[in-house]
Specification:
single chain, 5-stranded parallel barrel, alpha/beta, 7 helices, elongated, 16 strands, 385 residues
């Protein structure tokens, strides 16, 4: 039966092997990808200062105090920081949020930016739409698609196929070219300087029409924030897992061996933990004197199920490595990173991701509960506690 379990796990992991292979993760105070460096897959970078000057043949996920991307990027740039500066010669798309965002270079698809000050520089070209939300937005570059969004102040001196915005102050400067309509919602009349060309109509929209479009445009922002949250949780789990291994490698090894040797016991304990602990907490909350125990039980419940994916990732990562390394000791740190990457990628797949999360929750929490219980029993037998 144990072999069948691992065969199922291997089948799931093989589905995502292509996506996971080659993922590059960089973290530290100062992250630098040099000009002559080439990364042939997705790049995840966390640091105080992130500077990417080399070529990335995949997506970039960069988060820090300051993020700078000046190298070529085949995929999408996802970044969040205090200051973001994108000046790539070529990039697929850009999703950026920061206090100050600057976009230059050539982006051949969409750009979504939000923050305090948003600048699209004069030498910037955007092949599709520009979606902007922030305090002040200045567009001096060329946008082949539509400019849309909401901001306090909007200043345009570049080119666009159409503009549809909600802003308190609007200035269309001399030299600007809008080949379609200028659709606005503002408390003030727009300032259109002499020399600005608007080939379509200037339309003042009602508040109801604008609200519908803003609600629709917020959807990609929410999606970006969800992805950012998932990446942060992923990195946090790696850090917690490393700390656990450093502090108690033998305990971690013992918990991992529990699910390997007795998977069905772990599954049973996982079901018990999933059902019994919440019921007990609710009962204790209903009893006045049981309130402190209920709070403690809720804390334990949260702690166990947070550790579930970390220990499950350790076991999965070790099994993946063992497919290629038949003999010798396997690093727990490497197992942790590979296992969590597998779970992260599977979690992004609709339906399958939900099923995997339930399986991980049951087996992972079960191995923590069952393994800890056996360890406590042994310590009592040896009169250590």
């Amino acid at each position: 039966m144990n072999k069948r379990i691992w065969i199922v796990c291997f089948a799931l992991m093989i589905l995502c092997t292509t996506s996971v292979y080659g993922l590059v993760v960089r973290s530290g105070d100062n992250i630098k990808i040099k000009v002559d460096e080439v990364i042939d897959d997705d790049l995840v970078a966390f640091g105080q200062n992130v500077s990417i000057k080399g070529k990335v043949n995949g997506d970039i996920y960069a988060f820090g105090q300051e993020v700078e991307v000046t190298g070529d990027v085949a995929g999408t740039i996802f970044c969040g920081a205090s200051t973001v500066d994108i000046d790539a010669q070529i990039a697929g798309s850009v999703w950026a949020g920061a206090g100050k965002v600057s976009i230059a270079g050539n982006v051949y698809n969409n750009v979504l930016i939000f923050g305090g000050t948003l600048d699209v520089e004069e030498d910037a070209t955007i092949g599709n739409d520009l979606i902007v939300y922030g305090g002040k937005a200045k567009v001096a570059g060329e946008v082949d698609g539509m400019i849309k969004g909401g901001m306090g102040t909007f200043i345009m001196s570049g080119k666009s196929a159409k503009v549809n915005i909600n802003a308190d102050k609007i200035r269309i400067k001399s030299g600007a070219l809008i080949s379609g309509d200028l659709v606005i919602e503002s408390g003030q009349e727009p300032v259109i300087e002499e020399g600005a060309e608007i080939l379509g109509e200037i339309k003042l929209k009602s508040i109801e029409e604008v609200d519908e479009e803003v609600a629709f445009a917020i959807v990609p922002i929410i999606a970006f924030l969800i992805i950012m949250f998932k990446v942060i949780v992923f990195v946090a789990k790696i850090i917690v897992g490393i700390v656990l291994i450093v502090l108690s490698k033998k305990y971690v090894r013992r918990i991992m061996d529990t699910v390997i040797s007795k998977p069905w016991h772990c599954l049973g304990w996982g079901f018990i933990g999933l059902i019994v602990i919440p019921v007990a907490v609710i009962i204790l909350f209903s009893i006045l004197i049981g309130y402190p125990f209920a709070v403690f039980g809720a804390y334990v419940y949260t702690f166990i199920f947070y550790l579930a994916s970390i220990f499950a990732g350790l076991v999965i990562g070790e099994k993946v490595i063992r497919l290629f390394k038949k003999e010798g000791e396997i690093s727990l740190y490497l197992s942790l990173i590979i296992g969590l990457i597998v779970l992260f990628v599977l979690g992004l797949i609709p339906i399958l991701g939900f099923i995997v999360k339930i399986i991980v929750l049951l087996f992972g929490s079960g191995m923590v509960l069952y393994g800890s219980w056996n360890l406590i029993r042994e310590m009592k037998a040896k009169e250590l506690i």
